[in-house]
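FAQ: What does the model actually see?

It sees only this:
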Amino acid sequence: MDTQGDRNIDPADQWVLDPETGDYRLRMDADDAPAPTVPAQGGHRAHREGEVRPVPKPREGSRRGGATRPRKAKRSRKRKVLMWTGGTLGFVLLAGSGGAYLLYRHFDDNISTVDVGTAGSRNATSKDAVNILVIGTDSRIGLGGKYGDAGSVGHADTTILFHVAKDRSNATAMSIPRDMVTGIPDCPTKQKDGSTKTIPGTPKATFSPRFNESLGQAGRDPGCTMRTVAKITGLPVDHFILVNFEAVKTLSTAVGGVPICLAHAIDDTDSLGQGSHLHLPAGPHTVQGEQALQFVRTRHSLKNGSDLDRIDLQKQFLGSMIRQMKSSDTLTDPRKLFELANAATKSLTVDTGIGGVGKLTDLAKDLNRVDPEHITFTTLPVIDNPDEGKIHKTVVVDETRAPALFAAIKNDVSLTEAKKKATTSDTKLHGPKADPSQVRVVLYNGGGPQGAAQTTQQWLLNTKGVTHSTNGGNAPGAQQARTTLAYGPDQADQARTLAAMMGLPASALHPGPDDRGPGTEMTLTLGGDYQGPGVPLTDPNKPSVDIPQSHADKNECVG
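And it is asked to produce this:
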């Protein structure tokens, strides 16, 4: 693989034993800057001064030692970039030398894991949709009191549910406000001695508990936060990734800085001297290290000085970092890849289902199929806590808007304007339509208003010219929430006509496997969503409310 311009160097050959230090380093030209190193391990020892070192035997077909191999056709730059896009850790798996193995071990030893038991999945990848909980903790342990209480175990300061659609056509990153009042369920946690201790849940009260207490409080681990999110949204959570303050600093530095844009200047120090102490004028900037951490912690100088305002900054920062990680400048630069992988693995605590470089790489390769254009950032809809006075410090779930967002995520709906990949349902409503007199249908009431089948059959007959319609009465079996129209392949034109008359979405149409034959009736079952003849039905695959969003492929000014 060509990773150094026109020089065809195998990635396995880029990591060599430094004779001066005994460490593995990245092979660079003599006039290049010092390369990153990895301590030699597992049977490799530093040679004594003056000791004669054996010359490694050239690999069969290598260019060393006069051996030659057929020259392969030169790959395009685009192809070279694609071969590096298996995730930020994927490059270590492309190498097969001892040096690469040591890199693998080095990164693997960086990663910390937590066994969350039944809260998550044991499999790193899945053929279904994937939900990953990204948790930013405000723990100060090990930071020397630099950001406050050095003994603080940390809470769920920043939490994002990252949902990736089953077909990997789109992803939604939903931020969860830390000051949202919600109940926290019982939580079994694994102890150091291997036993399981259940942390009692806390029911929702007027002002407590807040969502951020799902981690750290009373010994709760990330599995407790996973269970809390599942309870709030009704969505299963497969994995978690926990990062701390240092992660923001190291990752932003590893990618060479993160571009951001401010609509207004930031001077984040309040009258008590508190705040992130970030001072930036309006306009575009590139932040990294300490300044990047200040950026994602800023809130005092924003509109309302709230956590919700801070979430907008964090969404912009994360979208921009995704673009930086997937950029060709990062993916084709071995030094940047090493620094990014090293910083990432040192910063991570994950569940055992993805605990290890191999599992994380598999997950990264899978998720990398999603184009940044189709990654949408949004926030769980909330309202001010109605039980508080004039000064609102907490929020609660907006029960009128949140269910629509949860349903959209559950149904793999892209919140971007881009269309999903073509599916059968996308074409159900497109094509020739039958004349109303040729439409044959029997109607059942499977959950609609009383008498709905009768009134709808009369409406079709008297106002739409559907002369071959029959009232079947109440549907057999259990009632259903959604209206459905079942038909055979030879009745597709009839189904389109009826759907247009009644305002049925494509998701309501269910073609059968076999032709029903001439004169056979389609089956229309009116569900709990049915409101009356001619009233269009809402497609469950499209959110019915205006949900604020931003996109990973765009750098929009915020603040």
